Amino acid sequence: MSRLKVVFAGTPEFARVALEAIAAAGHDIALVMSQPDRPAGRGMKLQASPVKQCAVANNWPVAQPRSLRLDGKYPEEAAAGRDALLAAQPDVMVVAAYGLILPQWVLDLPKHGCLNIHASLLPRWRGAAPIHRAIEAGDAQTGITIMQMDAGLDTGDMLLREALDIGDDNTARLHDRLAEMGGRMIAQALANIGNLVRTPQPAEGVTYASKVEKHEALIDWAQPAEAIVRRVRAFDPFPGANSPLDGETVKLWTAHAVAAADASAAPGTILAVSDTGVAVAAAGSTVMLTELQRPGGKRLAVADFLRGFDLKAGQVFG
Fold first, then answer.
1. pLDDT digits (tens, 9 = 90+) for 55-111
2. pTM
3. Which of 42, 197, 224, 300 has its CA 20 to 30 A from that of 281?
4. How far apart are CA 187 and CA 171, in angstroms?
5. Alpha helices, DSSP H only, in the chain?
6. Do residues 119 and 146 touch, judged by C-beta distance below 8 A?
7. Torsion of CA 305, 307, 312, 318, to 10 degrees
């Protein structure tokens, strides 16, 4: 394997795992690009992204432009980003959940172009939230696609593609499994750079994974139990499925569908309460809630939750 000069562009934990895998494979990290520091936590202090934290810990140079469009809103930051990229003289650029659109001049700059680590089996779930949307839709499988980037939104030729069974994972668990897979696969791609077969994405089966918005976390109890449970799994850890009850917004973290149903109960009605679960009426079936959280509280198994929140049959989630 030849040692490559790599520019890495990414921001969240998913990308950090890939960055460390590239370094562990023996490549030269010539430059790390990440989103600017953001306010976070109760004090809303500026916090570096996981990728930047990794770069600083390893003394890799970092650039954080708000845009790379030279004719865009931040031309001075874009020009500084261009200077950093030119100085790095990369053989290849690897992108994973970066959060910025790469203009054509960036795509053309590295000798081997730009490779993207995408957390879906393209062309399904192009876009911002492929892990959440795969779970929400009830897909049996997802995976990682290593793609040669072009100017479109996740439309480039596929270089490597590997599937993974979703099972009953929530987004947190599936994220971690896919992050490990992405790191392994990008190391494989770099080891075979220049010899990978480019496969155009098929025109059929294209779907888009739109960004998850907080308002989507509100549960609609008029949906079937299976759809509600998928949404609970998909929105763990963010934004956390929720439903109002007696003036409070309760977060719902773990749930499963049960066949029993009370046809006379309005959707959202609590049918039964016990230390093993809170049964709630849905469309033609029942959702069993087993982990919940009050505002300002902790995630609790239902038995512990009930010690501080006296739920009763007949109450109705909004």
1. 999 999 999 999 999 998 999 999 999 999 999 999 999 999 999 999 999 999 999
2. 0.94
3. 300
4. 24
5. 13-24, 50-57, 75-88, 104-108, 130-137, 171-191, 225-234, 302-305
6. no
7. -40
